[in-house]
Each structure stands twice: as C-alpha cells, then as structure tokens.
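Lab notes, practical 5.
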Amino acid sequence: MGKTGLFDLEKNFSKMVIENHPIQIDSKKGIPVPQPTRFWITDGWLKKEISRLEEKGWIQKWEDMVTQDKSLFKQFIQLHRKEIEVRKSIISELHLPQYVVEKLMTTGIGGIQEFDKKPFKVKCLHLWTAYHIGDPRFRNPLGEFVLNQIKMQHQNR
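Output from the prediction step:
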C-alpha cells in the first residue's frame, strides 16, 4: 500500500465500524437480549491487522500499562462509565426486563465486569479500536495506538 493507500485508509476507518443498538431481540424466543458492545469492526482487513497486534502480546502489554498508570486507569474507567450513561439514555424510554437493564447498567464497554478494579481488563484490541473509531466521545489511547501501529506497518511496506 503506497502513500495514496494510506491517505485513503485514514479517510475510510470510520466506514470500517458499525454501531449496534444495545438491545437485540432473540428471534426464537422473542425476548430482549442486552448487547453491551455497541461498536464493531466490520472490515476483514482491519480485523486481521488488529489480530496481528494481539498475536504480538499487545493485550497483556496494555493491561499492564493501564493497571500501573493511575491516570490511564482513571481515563479508561471514565470511558466505561460514559458508555453506561450512553446506554442509559438510549434505553431510558423502553420498558425492559430487569436483567437487561442490570446487565447494561453494571458492565462497561464490551460487557467488561468490575471495570473499575485492578488489574485492568482490555478484553481485545478490536473492542477499543472500534469505540475509538465509532464515536469521538470514546477516543482512547489504546485505539489510537492500534491505528498508528497499522499505519506505520503499511508505511514501511
């Protein structure tokens, strides 16, 4: 991929992510199912590039970094809490079973439980990158790192 390809890639990252509603209806049972992950990477190429970073151990490295850095830890906790507030605003007018509301109001981004406790849980790089791309309110250093790594890898090819 040359310089033109990199420019196009940067312009098109937002087209590689979709946003889902935090409630899906089970098609067989007809009941609401909580979906704590709103943003998903849909582009196969980007998924593969992120998976390569995961294979290099970057999940553990980020978990260690965030756990050890008080400021970074606080920033990620705030992102989790912001996600809960966004979900709350989305579902506030809906009449939902308690189990659905409880799941969406007690788990963080990606359904991460006990997100405010150490050690910090990343879950996967795709998750944080999708949120970083999908909504400017959820820009985060992990997502930025991932995208920068991908750009650098392709500049060197």
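Observations recorded by the TA: The longest strand covers residues 17-19. Residues 1-7 have pLDDT under 50 and may be disordered.
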